[in-house]
Write a structure and sequence with these properties.
alpha+beta, 10 helices, about 30% helix
């Protein structure tokens, strides 16, 4: 099937689905996929702002395969046109080839090499931190109980991964001359730095917290800005940070703890800007039950089970909605989002063979 997979991948890569700028419509790549799935009931939905989904169903399946078609922007480091697929002896190179149009090509090839019940959900907003497609699907009367989500996992079933939360902090100070004795406490940037020290200490205290081979709390301060100049007390400051909890962490409890790292009265705003649950979703006891259910499903499909991973996927949203879900796809996350992104040909073949066997 490899030649067929590469033909589809060449076409899929040629469509510009970079996100941002989120200029993705209901035609283009979705017209192409719909044309490749004769015999399927296809429903295309435009959710706005580049979020488009295509649900293709044949028969009455209970399991849905999901793959996103949007990519990150292409960097300046590409050595050739990122929208033209290049195939070498062992890899296919192109924007999104690894994350995760290679899986989309494999699903299309497998769909046409099989008969019987099958369902595929193609979406275009995974890279936006604004999962409208999946939210709308899960909010509908979809009738599915199992979901296999394609992301680069080296053709291993991933049953657990971290959640993700992004936060905007605003600190308030009082402008004045930097020579004043009150500069140490009135400066909003000083308050932000004190918060950062407390937050780092708290994260360090979580180092021994474990779930399914994952350990500790991932944390990153991504941006700090504020102030006017060196001799003016900063009247305001902003901090953007993110953390990636374990499935056994309670995200709301973590937010409360990060908020207390600021001095009383220093915070003007604490705003969570994005939240993605862990996989499996739920409290510690429920999450372990869901993980065991996903493992049983993967083993019943004769898929090798891999280790838990640190990156986030939309499989967590399916799990949160009550479906038994895991992540399974070709490619290595180390190649995702890189210049000259690539996926191994052997991985594409292995993935498509597994999907054909499952169907």
């Amino acid at each position: 099937m490899l030649n067929t997979i590469l033909q589809h991948l060449e076409s899929l890569v040629s469509f510009d689905t970079r996100n941002p700028p989120r200029l993705i419509g209901s035609g283009g790549i979705f017209d192409y996929i719909r044309a490749q799935l004769p015999g399927y009931r296809c429903e295309v939905t435009d959710h706005g702002d580049g979020a488009v989904s295509l649900l293709a169903v044949r028969g009455n399946p209970r399991r849905v395969f999901n793959v996103h078609l949007d990519t990150v922007p292409s960097s300046e480091g590409w050595s050739a046109d990122p929208f033209t697929l290049r195939v070498s002896a062992d890899r296919a190179i192109g924007l999104g080839a690894c994350d995760i149009k290679g899986a989309a090509a494999g699903l299309i090839a497998a769909a046409n090499a099989t008969q019987g019940d099958a369902a595929f959900l193609f979406s275009s907003d995974e890279e936006a931190n604004d999962p409208r497609c999946i939210a709308a699907f899960l909010g509908s009367d979809h009738g599915f109980s199992e979901a296999i989500i394609a992301e680069p996992t080296r053709c291993e079933a991933v049953l657990a991964h971290r959640g993700i939360s992004s936060v905007l902090l605003k600190f308030k100070g009082e402008a004045g001359h930097a020579s004043g004795a009150n500069a140490l406490h009135a400066n909003a940037l000083h308050q932000a730095m004190r918060w950062g020290g407390g937050a780092l200490d708290f994260v360090a205290s979580e180092a021994n917290h474990c779930f399914a081979g994952l350990q500790g709390l991932r944390f990153n301060i991504g941006r700090v800005e504020g102030g006017i100049k060196a001799n003016v007390i900063a009247p305001s400051a902003e901090v953007r940070f993110g953390f990636r909890p374990l499935p056994s962490h309670d995200i709301d409890t973590l937010h409360a703890r990060f908020g207390t790292c600021a001095a009383p009265g220093a915070l003007d705003r604490y705003q969570e800007t994005f939240r993605g649950p862990s996989l499996p979703a739920g409290d510690a006891t429920y999450a372990e039950q869901r993980r065991q259910a996903a493992q049983s499903l993967a083993e019943s499909l004769y898929l090798p089970v891999g280790n838990a991973v640190d990156f986030w996927t939309e499989a967590a949203l399916f799990s949160q909605a009550g479906l038994t879900a895991f992540v399974y796809g070709p490619g290595d996350i180390a190649q995702a989002h890189t210049a000259d992104e690539w996926v191994a040909l052997a991985q594409l073949q292995r993935y498509a063979d597994a999907i054909v066997r499952i169907l």
